[in-house]
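Appendix B, Record 12. Input sequence as logged:
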Amino acid sequence: MTINNKLVIKEVEDYVFITLGLLLYTFGFTVFLLPNEIVTGGVSGIGAIVFYATRIPISYTYFLINALLLVVGLKILGWRFLVKTIYAIVVLSLMLGIAQEVIPQDDDGNYVKILGEGQEFMSLIIGCMLTGTALAIVFLNNGSTGGTDIIAASVNKFHNVSLGTVLLFIDLIIIGSCLFIPTFGNTLDRLHKVMFGFCTMVIENFMLDYVFNRSRQSVQFFIFSKKWQEIANAIGTQMDHGVTILDGHGWYTGEERKVLCILARKNESTTIFRLIKMIDPQAFVSQSAVIGVFGEGFEQIKVRVKSEE
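Logged structural output:
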């Protein structure tokens, strides 16, 4: 398979998973959060606030604000990122619009609460777990749902600040604005919406960081085997993965032995173990989690270098 074919397949996979992530987000937002008038962060949260106050469909507000933010993020994130972002914005706008039309309503025109009355907090937990996971899926496939995600991705590109942390700060401002909207009822009612909004913010961003970081978690292997050359060759050729060979010396046996050192993604572990077992079932293998791996093939080092005076 040529490099161009691999790139095309990777791009197709990105769009497929981005679409699935958007579908999951739409389901969690419109089925669990919207019927209970739960305020969330992000542009969808702004759209929800506008909808609760004016009944203007969320898709309109969401699309308009994102169109403005796209112009701002163009120079920072580049065309490749923004092409997928534009795709996500258009698709999510359509999905939210369709979802608002198809979800069941009662005789008074209110959306039916799938968990029943008095289950607002449980709806909040389930909804935010779904939306947070959905955002992570989109980000992991080089996409964005637009809005505050564009701001978060811009900051994360240059600074080692997690996406969840940036979104947390922005969401504080959006959710806190509920205190100043008279149509949300008296002061106590507005305070309730803010408190619920803060809960959505914490749960959603926790799920975003958890899923995002878990899938990118790295591990370190030390492999001791007499067939070290065959194992290194298999990992290097079949997985297109780098292998470092270290010189080892056994204290008890006094034997010289080669030790393979490998840094890999956690989701590659099963493949590595399978290759080792096929070649040398008696190999001694040590696997450990590492806090971070930076450099070619892994994460970029995102710290500022002080200029020499």
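The chain has a mean pLDDT of 82.
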